[in-house]
Amino acid sequence: MNSSALIHAVIDGVLTGSVYALMATGLTLIFGVMDIINVAQGIFVILGAYLSYALSVHWGIDPFVGLVITIPTLFLVGIVVERAFIGRLKGPEKTAMSILVTYAISLVIEGSLNMIFSVNYVQISASYVNKTFRIFGVYFAYIYVYGFIMAAILLVALYVMLYRTRFGASIRASLADQTAAALVGIDVKRVSTICFGIGIAVTAAGGMVFGATNAFNASTSYDLISRLLVIIVLGGMGSLGGALLAGILMVTLEDIVGVVWSPVWSIIAFYIVLVIVLSIRPQGLFGKQSARVA
Amino acid sequence: MLKKKVNLLWLVALAIALFVPNIITNPAYRQIAVITLIFTACATSWNMFSGYSGYVALGSAAFYGTGAYTMALLSLHLHVHAGGDMFWLVPVGGLAAMLMAIPIGLIALRVRRHTFVVITIAIFFVFQLAAINFGFTGGTGGLTLPYIPWMIQSYHVPFYYVALTMLVFAIALSASVRRSRFGLQLLAIRDDEDRALGLGVKVFPVKLTGFAMSAFTIGMGGALYAMMQGQIYPQFVFDPIFDISIALMAFFGGFGTLLGPILGGLVLESSQQYLTVTYSNGSLYLILFGVLFLLVVLFMPQGIVVFIRDWWAKRQDRLAAANEAVGAQGGNS
Amino acid sequence: MKRKGKLFRACGVTSVAAATVMMMATASGASSSGSIAKGAPVKIGISLSLSGDFSADGLAYQQGYKLWAADVNASGGLLGHKVVLDITSDASSPTQVVTNYQKLISVDHDNLTFGPFSTLLTLPAAQTVNRYGYAMIEGAGGGPSVFQAGLKNVFDVTLPVAYDLKPFATWLTSLPASTRPKTISYVTSNDPFTQPVVQEAQKLIGKSVKTVYNKVFPAEATDYTSIADAVAAAKAQVVVLGSVDVPTVSAFMQAFEQAHYTPKAFIATAGPDQGASFIKAVGAGNADGMMVPNSWYGGSKNAASRKMVAEYVKKYGGTAAGVNADIAEAYSVGQVMAQAVTATKGFSNTAIIKYLHSGATLSSVQGSVKFDALGENTAQTAYTFQWQGAKFVEVNPVSDPGAVKVLFPKPAWGK
To answer: Of B315, C59, C82, C106, which one has the fewest beta carbons inside 10 Å?
Structure first.
């Protein structure tokens, strides 16, 4: 173990972590506004990756340029799914039912992707995927840097939309209290639909970077969703800043433990942090709900 | 009189269940029957906490896996004779799961119920990872239990009766909890936790007790499964599909009702196993299963028990109304 | 009203219980008598992973089994009986695999059984068919746990995985000191299939090449970048990677390329043997010099193998080099069963098990087959293969007439 490997691990962790943070932000936004736990988020990431893959293989469209097509496509998919299924859920068991419904949706998408693309692993390629530059005596791949820049731009755009626009204000109102938001005349239903669309749309971008840095098939989604859920729990469910911080923290911590100690313990180390945080702060790092201790 | 009739029907159901191994003699279907009973018992037990309290736990596979590993490790290290003696380890597996439920509950039950769902999933992944990475669990290679040298013709019969006992136990426990003061407290938490707290219900201990009690049967289920299967792997006894399956059974039948999970478990698990065995085509199967699943959740969100009961009640009302109308006409003429 | 509800509930339980019983009440299970009526087909039950984690291999196995069945039927079947394959999917689940074999034997009354894919599923499958007294001939259950279970009915036609890296170790340690690499990294996934292989290689290579990195990584990792970066930082001249699939190898290759690190020799336990799907994932330019141990490859000189490869290419397209080794493993299972049936003049599983334990030497597209007491095939030779140009060629054992010279040192990435 040397210090350059450690620096490498930290920078890699921040770069890759930002992409996970982007995907987790979509998940936590959906939960915060709608009380919906979208376990199909993992398969939507893979769907986004496959879209970028198909565009680059069949039409030679660069994956980053292709985002112009894939992000709106997944936004629409999100709107349709919300209108057709998610929006129909109501009652006290809505959150639990949402897990079942989104799980069913992910099964349908997984089966369809298997039929269209087969189960063989694929990876998105572009001329610059393996190009690197040197800094601090270690090499960094451009793809991670591009991925980081993209995630940063999208996250900033999301924040600007939330904090500088009227629509953003209504989302924030719904995040804070749905009933109160409805009382002041916000169309919570419309806000929900659009939020779901946004939450799904970010997976197009996250999926593209994931697909360019990892070989994948439809069943890769199971590993993804478990990581995304854990990220939003640590960050505090419904907290956008929490998802961002927890995403970066998770991947960086894993990378550091992998280098310093052993890769076997890298994920465990993260879970240990999670359990410690939850036993002190049950609502996660930035969760808004106060704990209920009887 | 009616009450007697109800008890009689339960007895008839039990009597039929007792004779199942004599009717189903084919080992493949006996296997399905045993697995169905195990899942139904787990779903009933899950519903006893999650259904009554409204705290939907999606990490129950942590208890199932704990039971399975307890069975495997104890039978290997205590050199238990490969055979009927291993059944004594089934309740031990349940106890181990119950012990695990206490620290989990201490962490997870302190949050709002929506967050609780996700925390249970996260804790479940901790268990799965631990089983994969610790040395004593055999890592990804899992553990091979002592080989039970029973002939296939009668192999499943003892498992069937133990699983049936487990199910009867789970139903009896769930029914008596429902009738008890403790059960009323759970239901009060489901309706409005803050109000229950205001009324003096010791909310946290009640939730923790319910959570640990429900872990017991689920742990026994895992232990029995491990014994019958003969080989366990971390990713298949700590299986997220298990979590989803038992929750689906309860929702399918009727969340929070006594009969719902029983009905859901018997119908879903047996038909799913049967369909996979009979018509297996990977991708198409996933799509069909997903679509079926969506239809049930969207069109019978309260579960079939409530759905049919409402339909039955409406029909009775209509009949009564019609009779009345006929009666009124008769009176007029 | 309330009481009515209760009555309804109990009715429900009763009717469901009754319906379940009715649905499942079918004829009792049969045991294998060993004789099949004249003109009736011989049915072979197989559970394969047509979805889930092992689906890529499961589908390849299906092709291999089908290819064998078509060939046998073209030449008159087994002892005059047409071969019918009864394939069900286990979705890569060990619970399902057990149910499936019980169903194949006791409901479908299949006469013989072939193995599923992977060590993970083979063990519960073999235990299950053992209760019926059936032989479990398989090609993908080579992990030590399968043989340590003490089952008498399991026969793996493929060389046990622990032997896989022997020719590579021999080649490496016999290089003259002037050219022999000085440092080596071992990195493996904690999988029952790869760990024994890498440990065995480490024992064989021993101190003749200095170990600079030796770590195990979790099998369920999705992101290998940090592990691969750590291996790259160790800068060993040789890398031995215990991988189970294409994505693992491709992730390491990509990270190495990004770190500008090219080991002089790079061998992975699985991935580069996947033919076209490997090339598709890593790109043709990067494959050059990648090594993999295996007992078979598409360019094998074995006459039966060449015939099989030609048929495969004709039926499914592609090139000989692109044929997955799973195809040959599955095909060999069929061949061994055919020889056992011919030798025992019947379909009695008891006779077949006894015959396969007798020490007879059989043949397959993968080479000779001879089972020891545990059911391992020790007669087969292990080979090392390497991608050279766009070709997948045999390079070890060096003494083998079919072997070409190892491409050493490995060319830089992307060249």
So the answer is: B315
Res B277: pLDDT: 66
Looking at residue A294, its pLDDT comes to: 31
Residue A14 belongs to some domain of the structure: yes
Structural domain includes residue A150? yes
Rounded-to-integer distance, Cα A52 and Cα C327, Å? 32
For residues C298 and C275, the answer to whether their CB atoms sit within 8 Å is yes
- The verdict on residue B302 lying in a domain is no
Question: What pTM was computed for the model?
Answer: 0.83
Q: What count of other Cβ atoms lies within 10 Å of the Cβ of residue B292?
A: 16
What distance in Å separates residue B296's CA from the closest CA in chain A? Answer: 10
Q: How far is CA B120 from CA A9, A235, B106, B249, in A?
A: 30, 16, 12, 18
Using CB atoms within 10 Å of the CB of residue C80, give its burial: 0 to 12 exposed, 13 to 18 middle, 19+ buried.
exposed
CB contact under 8 A, C99 and B32: yes
Interchain proximity A99–B244, CB inside 8 Å: yes
The more confident residue out of A288 and C16 is A288
Same domain, C256 and C389: yes
**A121 and C250 in contact by Cβ < 8 A?**
yes
> Is C176 found in the same domain as C115?
no
- Asked if C384 and C290 touch (Cβ cutoff 8 Å), the reply is no
Out of C55, C223, C413, whose CB is closest to A119? C55
Encoded amino acid at B163, one letter: A
Lowest mean pLDDT among A155-164, C212-221, C361-370: C212-221
- Are C194 and C145 within one domain? no
Is the confidence metric ipTM above 0.85 for this complex? no
Residue B100: give the domain boundaries. 27-240
Determine, yes or no, domain membership for C185.
Answer: yes
Write out chain B residues lying below 8 Å of A89, CB-based: 301
Any idea what the CATH number is for the domain that residue C391 is in?
A: 3.40.50.2300
Domain that holds residue C318: 42-161+306-369
**How far apart (Å, rounded) are the C-alpha atoms in residues B236 and C54?**
14
Same-domain pairing of C169 and C143: no
Tell whether B147 is covered by a domain.
yes
For residue A185, what are the domain limits? 3-280
Q: How many domains does chain B have?
A: 1
Please name the residue that has the structure tokens 């830089």: C412
CATH number at residue A234: 1.10.3470
Q: Kindly state whether residue A293 falls inside one of the protein's structural domains.
A: no
Q: What is the pLDDT of residues B174-204, one digit of tens each?
A: 999 999 999 999 999 988 888 898 888 899 9
* Alpha carbons B149 and B198: distance in angstroms, whole number: 58
Q: For B28-81, what is each residue's pLDDT tens digit? A: 888 889 999 999 999 999 999 999 998 989 889 999 999 999 999 999 999 888
- Name the band, by pLDDT with cuts 50, 70 and 90, for residue C49: confident
Show which residues on chain C lie within 8 Å of chain A, measured between beta carbons: 51-53, 55-56, 59, 190, 215-218, 220-227, 229-230, 233, 245-247, 250-251, 254, 257-260, 277, 280-281, 283, 413-414
Total domains in chain A come to 1
CB contact under 8 A, B140 and C190: yes
pLDDT at C7: 43
User: Residues with Cβ < 8 Å from A292, sequence gap 6 or more?
Assistant: B110, B111, B112, B193, B197, B203
Which of A231, A278, A288 has the highest number of chain B CBs within 10 A, making it the mutation to test binding with B?
A278
Q: Answer yes or no: is C405 within a domain.
A: no
Q: Please report, for residues A192, A197, B307, the alpha-carbon distance to residue A75 in angstroms, rounded to integers and kept in the order given.
A: 13, 4, 35
Contact B129 C13 (CB under 8 A): no
Residue B22 lies in a domain: no
Residue B49 lies in a domain: yes
The answer to whether C207 and C181 have CB atoms below 8 angstroms apart is no
The set of chains that have 3 or more CB pairs under 8 A with B is: A, C
A286 within some domain: no
Domain total for chain C?
Answer: 2
Dihedral sign for Cα B139, B141, B145, B146, please.
negative
